[in-house]
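Reader question, answered in our methods column.
A reader sent in the components of a multi-part assembly and asked whether the whole thing could be modeled at once rather than chain by chain. We filled in our standard form and ran it. Here is what they sent:
COMPLEX SIZE: two components
ENTRIES:
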Amino acid sequence: MTEAARGDVDVDGAGIAVSLREVTKTYDNGVMALGPIDLQVRKGELVSLLGPSGCGKSTALRIIAGLEAPTSGTVRIGSRVVNDVEAKDRDVSMVFQTYALYPHMSVQRNIEFPLKSRGMPRDERATRVREAARGLGLEGLLDRKPAQLSGGQRQRVALARAIVRRPAAFLMDEPLSNLDAKLRVQTRAELIELHRRLAATVVYVTHDQVEAMTMGDRIAILDRGVLQQIGPPQAVYDEPANLFVAQFIGSPSMNTIGARVVADSEAVAVELPGARIMLPAPTGAAVARAGADDVVLGVRPEHVRIDGGQLPATVSVVESLGHERHVVCRLDDGTMVIVREAADASPARAGDAVGLSVPSEHLHVFDAGSGRRVAV
Amino acid sequence: MRGEAGVTEGRPVRRRFAIVARYALLTVLAAIVLFPVYMAVVGSLLKTEQITSRPPTMLPTHPTWDSYSTAWSAGHLATYLRNSAIVAVIITCGQVVTAILAGYAFAFLEFPFRRTLFVVFIATLMVPFEVTIITNLNTIVSLHWYNTYAGLTVPFLATGFGAFLLRQAFLGIPRDLQDAAALDGYGHLRFMTRVAVPLARPAIAALAVFGFLSAWNQYLWPLLITKNDQLRTVQIGLRQLRATSIEQVNVTLAGVVLAALPLVVLLVVFQKQLVRGLTAGAVKG
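And here is the structure of the entire assembly that came back:
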């Protein structure tokens, strides 16, 4: 694993709220859900676990929660190893995608349910519930049953139930997936505010990269049980560790074009379908060092320009989104390249033959075999 | 245009006709089902000499409650009804408790041979009670439970049907709720009592009503296992009532009506839960 892919942030462990060390999970049927994974979440930090369905992100969360046992490795909450500690004693609370509200209980009873089990006196319970309800705008709904609430209100009740315990960490499993698009944006903003207000440690599982990018202090990208990269959203976007991350983060996703490395005594160039591009010196040197013959070039749609550049292409579709346009082009060998343009840029039309250019500073180079980024 | 208007007007008329036809059919079927019950009630309100009159009396013009008081006092119905109530309540409570525990285990706990054991539970539904009656009788006698409430009730305290019904109901509870409860500090026992059981209430009510109904209607087993009137239940009581008042069908019918009354009350009270319990999970949501 590369340094960038490791979740290490703090060597001595102080200031760490949640930590996974070499954690694996293999199910009885032999399916490996989680490879050895290292992840450390600082106190007060919001880390998004991002990846496609079945990548192991929910498994990781459930292992932290204590709802599933890891096959190997160490799980810590704060400085305490919790591998053998029951879920209820781990001092974490969880918000579920389905909200998991108790349908037969009122909002009030739902929120105070975790406090009741811990034998908290009635007065203190009432105070805590009132505080949580006030913070989330639920005061008028305390006597209602979950069935009488809207999706957004149910979500807030689930949050209140998590908050009321004041746990060491919040675990959120796709909490916004069941909301409609408009409400999701609104609730996302509320969650960010809540996170800041409570200075809460949050591990946030999502398959939505926009959610992960906008909410996470750092994002951890998983694929097939393996942590691909962890870092601040912008860093992950700017310097994806491998092809998977490059294509998973960003919408539309990064264009990738297969290329052959052609090195002569002076410089390193790559041959693309219909063009040859000289690589800038540091990138060229790195490619030469890596010794790869075949590479994959990556370029974000916003960095490709239709300006009569040296890469010949044909426009196949133009998608107008109002504020911007996505121009889908095909290279000579059929490779698709999407260009993101401002809405007022000169309009290309389907069927036009165009020349594309890519500023070399925005080129990402990946090893065609391993998919890893060729580090400059 | 006229044609179209005709079509749109025609539909509601046809639909209304279909509704009327459906209700007419349901009314006829209900009348067929309820007719014997009605005749039993009518018969119980007649005098002995009226009941054999031809054509039979369909509407009692001078109803009398005499046969009820005769059935109650001469037929010792109070004792029989009390015994039946005790037996039915014990059996119902037993069945509900064992079905909750077994159903919960099959739905939520992981243990070896869970599936096999469940199949064995289900298989017991295919064994008629008559097949096991001799063995059960021997067991009860060897336990010295002959002619006791224990003998009357213990063989019926657990049923495969109950475990099956409640397992299905518990499986309908989202897994997330159990996870949430685990994090909220509730183990299996408290999750079962605070969350699973309240959510499975319709199925539990259905099971309770069926349990009570079958216990109340038992005839063969109480007859075998008891030897005196102190412990005999109402169905045997009715049989004896019929034997002793062979000339007075109205008295027998009054006894039948009295014996059925608790069940009618039970069904009316639990009707809503019962229907919900039996159709639970049949449709989404």
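What stands out: Residues 81 and 234 of chain B are 5 Å apart (CA to CA). The interface with chain A takes residues 174, 176-177, 179-180, 182-187, 190, 195, 198-199 of chain B (CB under 8 Å).
Send us your own complexes using the same form.
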